[in-house]
Write a structure and sequence with these properties.
Length: 386
């Protein structure tokens, strides 16, 4: 496909094919969204609703409404927002969202996961952009207040894994990565400098604790004091997260005027591309699930989401450098993603495959639409910038 025709094709695929497909299937009339689809695109029945899926899908339909998806996308976003609004925990004071409930609101898993709260904040920022809802911003602020007052680690920095506090180990960089994403989105939605201050603290934790100084790569698992976790967990590196941080650092550098972080973005991208992409076989160039700090492949399976993060990272490097080869890599990887993972309908996908491309997972988790949509939206944004 000629480069000049790709933007229109990407917008058409995402907004006219993927979003309507999911909007027509994933909405549960009894409340919220279904957790997964099968290979034929049918909702998989489940009595449980995770706040992660509900928040991610509310984000997707909110963002889709912002970029021209019309009333259908807005109505889907409203549907998700209503469940999130009702599901917040009030126990004398605001206490976030349970990990999972039934459709009727009965608690299934009472933990308030920091990772989940990050996605609620992210969804509320985008729902506000789509609708102007002041209540969404109130919920985002209350969620961060809850984290800072009940889940923050006053000794070592960052946030614990969940509330009530259990001392759960290992600690992960992942919730903090998505809190950075959420704070940047809320800053962009509001212009309120407090959200940039919060983002800056999370970036400081990244530079101080998450980065392996020997390789420039992102570590995943840590002890209570943010030292690398002992044994194998401390050696693991996920290519998808290297790429995700490249994109987030690109966002942060632009919004906070912090060009000093460029070296980190370069090293993350270099590690991810040199050691995280397959170099042979039918899926050459497709990202592995997990490697280690010595660049050995730990899990040679391939999920959808790391592929979308590679696309976003390429866009971030194009915007940082102006090098059009990064833009070309982004489009080439979208083509690879659609060829190797998507069904013939072009809107549903096999979520994980073996190294040779054989399917590993039958159902498509609805939460992964967040990754697919955001990568497509970033491609559209890149090409439609004034």
């Amino acid at each position: 496909m000629p480069a000049s025709s790709v933007p229109h094709a990407t917008r058409s695929w995402l907004m006219d094919q993927v979003c309507p497909y999911w909007a027509s299937r994933i909405v549960d009339p009894d409340g919220g969204f279904f957790e997964s689809l099968d290979a034929q695109g049918r909702p998989v029945a489940s009595a449980t609703r995770t706040v992660l899926s509900q928040a991610r899908l509310t984000y997707v339909f909110s963002h889709a409404a912002v970029v021209g998806g019309g009333l259908k996308m807005r109505h889907c976003a409203d549907h998700g927002f209503e469940l999130i609004r009702r599901a917040s925990v009030i126990n004398g004071s605001f206490e976030g969202w349970h990990r999972s409930t039934t459709v009727d609101g009965a608690v299934v898993d009472a933990a308030r996961d920091t990772y989940d709260q990050a996605f609620v904040i992210f969804a509320m920022a985008w729902y506000h952009r789509a609708t102007g809802s002041a209540q969404a911003l109130d919920l985002a602020e209350q969620a961060y207040w809850f984290l800072e007052n009940h889940v923050a680690d006053r000794v070592h920095g960052g946030f614990f894994e969940e509330f009530p506090l259990t001392g759960k180990l290992p600690r992960r960089q992942n919730p903090h990565m998505h809190l950075l994403e959420a704070t940047l989105a809320t800053y962009q939605a509001t212009g309120n400098p407090v959200w940039m201050e919060r983002a800056s603290k999370l970036v400081a934790l990244f530079t101080d604790a998450f980065v392996d100084p020997d390789t420039g790569a992102l570590a995943e698992y840590f002890d209570i004091a943010w030292n690398r976790a002992e044994g194998m967990p401390g050696t693991l590196r996920e290519p998808g997260h290297q790429f995700e941080w490249v994109w987030l650092l690109g966002q942060f550098m632009r919004q906070a005027a912090r060009p000093d972080l460029e070296g980190h973005a370069q090293r993350l991208f270099a590690f991810g591309t040199q050691h995280g992409l397959d170099t042979a076989g039918p899926l050459k160039g497709v990202a592995f699930d997990v490697v280690d700090n010595h660049a050995s492949v730990v899990a040679d399976s391939k999920l959808v989401w790391p592929q979308t993060e590679y696309i976003k990272a390429c866009i971030a490097r194009f915007e940082a450098t102006g090098d059009t080869s990064f833009r070309q890599q982004a489009y080439a990887h979208l083509t690879s993603l659609r060829r190797h993972f998507f069904y013939a309908d072009g809107a549903n996908w096999v979520n994980q495959v073996e190294r040779n491309g054989a399917p590993l997972v039958e159902q498509t988790p609805s939460r992964v639409l967040y990754h697919v949509f955001l990568a497509g939206a970033e491609l559209i944004r890149m090409e439609e910038m004034p």
